[in-house]
Amino acid sequence: MVATLDTKGRETAYLARVVEQWGRETLTIDVGTSNRRGRSEPHGSDARVAAPAELLREIAASAREEVKELLRSGAIDAIVGVAGGKGSAVFGEVVSDLPYGFPKLLVSSARPALLAELALHNDIILYPTLVDLFGINAFTERVLDNAGRAIAAMRHVPAQDRQKRKTVAITAFGVTTPAANRCVARLAEAGIDAIVFPANGAGGRKMEQLVSAGEFDAVLDLTTTELADELVGGTASAGPDRLKAASHRMIPQLIAPGAVDMVNFGLPSSVPAEFKGRQFYSHTPFTTLMRTTVSENERIGRLTAERLSQAKAPALVLWPAKGVSDYDRDGGIFRNPEADRAWFNAVRRHLPRSIIARELDCHINDPEFAEAAASWIVEQLIPGGSSGADV
Q1: How many Å apart are CA 129 and CA 340, to the nearest integer?
Q2: In what order do the strands lie in the sheet with 280-284?
Q3: Rounded Cα distance, 301 and 296, in Å
Q4: Intra-chain end-to-end CA distance of the chain, in Å
Q5: Residues in domain UPF0261 (predicted)?
């Protein structure tokens, strides 16, 4: 249990009793800024004089190391937080190094925007209280009873020594789903598991984190649209670490320009004024897409090549000449061959000679594109195991 005991002590004690009633033992780490009665006292008597943000970072770093040590020793197999706004931010940092799938439950009265931000970075199970946490009452009892029973039923089971079944990360968007589906099926035929991440910012960020953690044997980066949002200023950027982890881990990677024809925004009213007059399409009532230009695609292609140039393991770029998304095909709302080719030309100009960029005369969602991409991945992981297209 991780909690701010100076403000959530009663709620934490109540939650501990519920968990223990269901047969689990608990230990508590105090991440409050006063009355530090936790398992460690990392800040000494001068803790109160630090700037609030600095103090919170110190508390989070100390608690994160403590949790990591508890995990290494096998002392914990689930974690639950009880917090308001500051404590919720600290909890997000504390659990940031825990494995994907390790049970992480946060009972929080923080504002929804903060909880949404936490969900971008980790697989935390969020339990918004909707009422403030001011002691035990008829409302908070219901919340804490449910949370206690839930976390008591969750238990992390460490993965056994990994079976030699290869696992590949794939990126997908709604407009590249047909290609992703075919890639998953082709890899399955070869006995390879495929884990698909939505290229919506949070998905790409999480994929990079898991690749860095050694969870994957290769990356089929079919949908690199998040780079468009990073460069142009959309809402689906995965941040500056996108397209880096596979190179650092030295695993095979295939890069395609899936959905780089678009930048994501929310409601039409949310589109910045600087883009007035651009080409837009309402993907849903809540999602507005903006077509990328020739110059933007040239910049995206250059960034792709610069990040991919760090690769030491096999890498391949595949470019579909007939379109990069469902909206970018003959007759499609975003069809713009000149802008598409600007991406490919920039990639070829800036890639090192050791990395090949190849053009396929098809659309990204045509079966032959998925066959070529997946078959290359199969050949990297199971030499001689590909019987598909020659790329």
Answers
A1: 47
A2: 262-265, 287-291, 280-284
A3: 9
A4: 52
A5: 2-157, 165-378
